[in-house]
Amino acid sequence: MDAIQAVRELGKAIQADERYIEYARAKKVNDEDAELQNLIGEFNLIRQNAAMEYNKPEEEQNKEKLTKLNADMQEAYEKVMANENMAMFTVAKAGMDELMGQVNTVLTLVLQGADPDTCPTSQPTGCTGSCESCGGCG
Prior knowledge:
about 140 residues; mainly alpha; YheA-like fold; 5 helices; extended
């Protein structure tokens, strides 16, 4: 089996993992939630308006407008995050991020010469990414 075929097999294994299945399900529910999509749209519009104001030269920025936009953006963000479907998506995404972190750690360590069968799936706390300063991965 060549490397590309192995990656395709890895892709199949990831799609069969419960964390991926939950993530895909939660993403679909989010995408179909019109109320949530409207809330996200409102948040993005406020964020764009704030970015336009921040990108002006400092002497041209309207500080009162920026304060209001920041408050509005925080309120819109809280509404998005209070949505039940977004809450479920956030949990599912954390699981998916954990899975992808494990995959990336193994791949990184293997590329650094570690044994694919025994290298850890998570970096030790405070890992610099350089195995020369460590000794914990082997």
